[in-house]
Amino acid sequence: MSIEKIFKEQKLEQDIKKVIEKTKEQPGRMNDLMNVKLVGCNETERTASFEFPISEWQMNPQDMLHGGITATMMDLALGLFANCICLKLGGFFSPTVNMSINYLQPVYLNDKVTITAQLVSTGRSLLTLSGEAKITERNCMAATASATYKVIRK
């Protein structure tokens, strides 16, 4: 299936929700603990947005969101989107090859973070995505990322 066709399909949101539900099948693992929710998709902009609540266990000693948790949220949001696209391209898994993150603003307990993942480019075996993490209540950018995912075919 072509990228254009993937984004014209109305089933994209349903497919992403199914991928998120699969994470619930492994309770106690990181993807389940992150409690991610799909906010929505924009087929024209090739984006999917995800919301993450911030909890006590995610804080660093300075009572701010731990940088590793920010990285995990980025990888989960961009990776969910990449995996959904990978499945539609005939692959079965899309692991992270590389990720670069810029930390811009601290995130505090009880904030909510919305990450918008955007498909930037596709090759024969690689997907490149970018991500923007915004603190929902303050509407300010907390972090940005770019990542590459491998399309693993059967």
List keywords for this structure.
154 residues, two-stranded antiparallel sheet, PaaI family thioesterase, six-stranded antiparallel β-sheet, 4 helices, ACOT13, Thiol Ester Dehydrase, Chain A, 8 strands, alpha+beta, globular
Could you characterize what this model shows?
Helix content is 29%, strand content 38%. It is built from four helices and eight strands, in the order H-H-H-E-E-H-E-E-E-E-E-E. The chain has helices at 3-8, 12-23, 30-33, 67-88, and strands spanning 37-42, 47-53, 91-93, 96-103, 112-122, 126-135, 140-150, 152-153. A hairpin with a 3-residue loop joins strand 5 and strand 6. Helix 2 (12-23) crosses helix 4 (67-88). The model has no long low-confidence stretch (mean pLDDT 92). InterPro entries: ACOT13 (IPR039298), HotDog_dom_sf (IPR029069), PAAI_dom (IPR003736), Thioestr_dom (IPR006683). Residues 64-138 form the Thioesterase domain.
What is the structure about, briefly put?
It comes from Aminipila luticellarii. GO terms for molecular function: fatty acyl-CoA hydrolase activity. The chain has 154 residues and is an alpha+beta fold.
CATH architecture: Roll
Write down the CATH topology.
Thiol Ester Dehydrase, Chain A
Number of strands: 8
Total number of domains: 1
Portion in helices: 25-40%
Just give the CATH class: Alpha Beta
Query: Strand-and-helix sequence, N→C?
Result: HHHEEHEEEEEE
Q: Which consecutive residue ranges, at least 5 long each, have pLDDT under 50?
A: none
Number of helices: 4
Beta-strand residue fraction: 35-45%
**Sheet having the most strands:** 6 strands, antiparallel
Instruction: Write the CATH homologous superfamily.
Output: Hotdog Thioesterase
Overall 3D form = globular
Protein name: PaaI family thioesterase
GO molecular function, one term: fatty acyl-CoA hydrolase activity
InterPro entries: ACOT13 (IPR039298), HotDog_dom_sf (IPR029069), PAAI_dom (IPR003736), Thioestr_dom (IPR006683)
Domain Thioesterase: 64-138
